[in-house]
Amino acid sequence: MPRYVLSFKPAIGLYGQHDPAAALFEDDELVFGIEEERLTREKHAPHTFPRRAIHACLDHRDIELKDVDRIVLPYDPQLRSKLIRYYVRDALAIEGITAKLNHLRRVAEDQLVARYFPLRRVKSQLAEIGTPIPPIEHREHHACHMASAFHPSNFDEAVVFTIDAKGEYDSTVVWHGTEDGFRRVRTYEHPNSWGLFYAIITEYLGYGMFNGEGKVMGLAPYGEDNVEIESALRSVIETGVDYDLTSLTYRWGTDYGVQRLEELFDRSRTDGSGTFDQWEKDLAYTAQKLLEESICELVDAYCREVGTGNVALAGGVVLNCKLNQRIANLSAVEDLFIQPVAHDAGLALGGGWIDQHPSDVDEMSTAYWGPEYDTASIKRELETNKLEYMEPADLERTVAERLADGALVGWFQGRLEMGPRALGNRSILADPRSVESRDRVNEYVKHREEWRPFAPSLTEEAASEYFITGEEAPFMIRTFDVVPDKRDKIPAVLHPADDTTRPQTVREDQNPRYYRLLREFEEITGVPVVLNTSYNDHGEPIVNTPMEAVKDFFGMGLDVLAIEDLMILK
Fold first, then answer.
1. Engineering a disulfide at 23: which of 88, 172, 295, 348 sits with its beta carbon 3.0 to 4.6 angstroms away?
2. How far apart are CA 162 and CA 185, in angstroms?
3. Which letter, b or e, does each residue of 147-181 get, where b requires 16 or more Cβ atoms within 10 Å of its Cβ?
4. Is residue 77 packed enough to be buried (19+ CB in 10 Å), middle (13-18) or exposed (0-12)?
5. Distance in angstroms (rounded) separating the CA atoms of residues 529 and 247
6. Beta carbons of 302 and 240 less than 8 angstroms apart
7. What sign for the dihedral angle of Cα 521, 527, 528, 531?
8. Can you tell me the distance from the alpha carbon of 357 to that of 350, in angstroms, rounded to the nearest whole number?
9. What is the DSSP string of 236-300?
């Protein structure tokens, strides 16, 4: 009988309130993984137990919960008691003895809840899925982030950085990973958190924590050095290896920090309209600058201290692709692996890998771990709904011709990607050769701000032709500088402010059909690149099922839907 391990992050109680996900391991091999949001259709699935994701894992191998040998939860509730120092310090700052005592009473209750309540809720939820419930084990939040980065990196040794808002009591941890195990080198404790700092800037600029940080990163290149903004921020925080952000991040959440920024700048937070004046662009630029400055100093220092140039990254902050480019360009960094499911959904992966020997974990080259749907079943659904379709003899060539003629294409193929990026299986595609493609996708398909940039997919062989460093980049997790004489070939996938791009390189063995599409497009146009953005409308998760793809196709400004071997036209 195979041995099954189920690892999941439940976004309930004190386990964390966003991005629950589940992953199934069979005989230590990752065989399935999915975020709950893909199934609930609520982005980030906050405050949600991943019931649907767990069912999807079990259904993938046609097993029941009782067939699972053990369950791993990427959270150690006992470690949260270390936050008591922070809570007591906070209580001492409150005026009035009654208020102090009430706060301390809440601290005591919080610690009891942290230790005992979440596990009871998890067991209660699991009992509704099946019994008996397998043994449940806890692993540290940041240790699971570490395993998600180090174990599939193929490094024998690396310095690993896990950087997020907070996990138990950690916000950033530096690790030394070897084949013999891993050890903490340094821990930065809550509330000294770059993830929380960036979330505060995000909320101040009118977007939401855990959802808008990528927009602020995209806004930053439109800004410029602003001495007044930078001086004001530096007056309340310290950057560098010994950074200190606590004057803004003193309390969990963003309200306290946003209020401090309003006082600091004598300016109210942005209204959330998605339009920005130059001052707001300069603030985004400065926040990004300070983040890059500090984390790069941190990486440089600990590469030298640990004595290796191999670096692995995980945690929500390293979804920041511009930061990752700066890290990759450091002289101390020889090789870099970034877990593409870097945010909390990736904890389900790390939870399954953490007890394995790193050399037994396959090197990660794709993120296609979700469900797939065959052409016959899709035909039945389309016919049931009286929808007309074609079945081209050569789908890739036909779609490439449509793209070259300016069509906007929904591309639904194979297994669903895990992580925030569409990697050629649940994608919207367009011709990268004109800015009109970018503007049409922003306005009529994604229904989002016109200044937002898009990313390309291209054949791996073309990387050296288009990027100055010429490296493979299969996960859209880093930005790159584009070779100057290639910029006018792909204007739709360049950031308008700095001409960088966030690519996905594709090998034939990684995704055969998508690779063939890129080759066909190259044969027609001479450009082995397409614009690739996630298949979802504004504010919703990436589509999962065929009928979700069909619904969005008719609700968005798409011209063609390529769905497995079939094609639907408007």
1. 348
2. 12
3. bbbbbbbbbebbbbbbbbbbbbbbbbbbbbbeeee
4. buried
5. 45
6. no
7. negative
8. 12
9. T-B-STT-B-HHHHSSSSSHHHHHHHHHHHT-PPP-SSS---HHHHHHHHHHHHHHHHHHHHHHH
Confirm if 469 and 490 have CB atoms less than 8 A apart: no
Dihedral angle sign, alpha carbons of residues 468, 471, 472, 478: negative
pLDDT in tens, 82-110: 665 565 656 555 566 765 566 556 555 55
Distance of CA 491 to the CA centre of its chain: 25
Q: Mean pLDDT over residues 303-322, rounded? A: 98
- To which residue do tokens 């990196």 refer? 153
Type of residue at 459: T
Helix 227-234 / helix 255-265 crossing angle, nearest 10 deg? 130
422 CB-contact burial (10 Å; exposed 0-12 / middle 13-18 / buried 19+): buried
Strand-strand pairing, 455-459 and 504-506 = parallel
Alpha-carbon distance of 211 to 37, in angstroms, equals: 13
Residue 22 tokens read as: 């589940």
The answer to pTM > 0.85 is yes
Question: Nearest Cα to 193, choosing from 166, 230, 232?
Answer: 166
Helices and strands, counts by H and E, the chain:
19, 19
Residue 227 parent element (H or E): helix 227-234
Q: Please tell me the predicted confidence (pLDDT) of residue 114.
A: 53
Distance CA 175, CA 25 (A): 25
Burial of residue 365 (number of CB atoms within 10 Å: 0-12, 13-18, 19+): middle
Q: Which H or E run includes 170? A: strand 170-178
| 109 three-state secondary structure | helix
Q: Contact, 483 vs 248, CB < 8 A?
A: no
Q: Pairing between strand 170-178 and 157-167?
A: antiparallel
Contact 562, 399 (CB under 8 A): yes
Phi, psi of 6 (to 5 degrees): -110, 125
Cα atoms found within 13 Å of the Cα of residue 160, Cβ hemisphere only: 30
Residue 47: strand, helix, or coil: coil
Measure the CA–CA gap between 187 and 534, rounded to whole angstroms: 35
pLDDT digits (tens, 9 = 90+) for 38-57: 999 999 999 999 999 999 99
Closest CA to 556 of 414, 459, 399, 447: 447
- The answer to whether 233 and 200 have CB atoms below 8 angstroms apart is no
> 263 pLDDT band (50/70/90 cuts)?
very high
E-strand ranges in 179-232 read 181-189
Contact 207, 283 (CB under 8 A): no
What are the tokens at 344? Answer: 């909390």
* Most distant pair of Cα atoms in the chain: their distance: 79
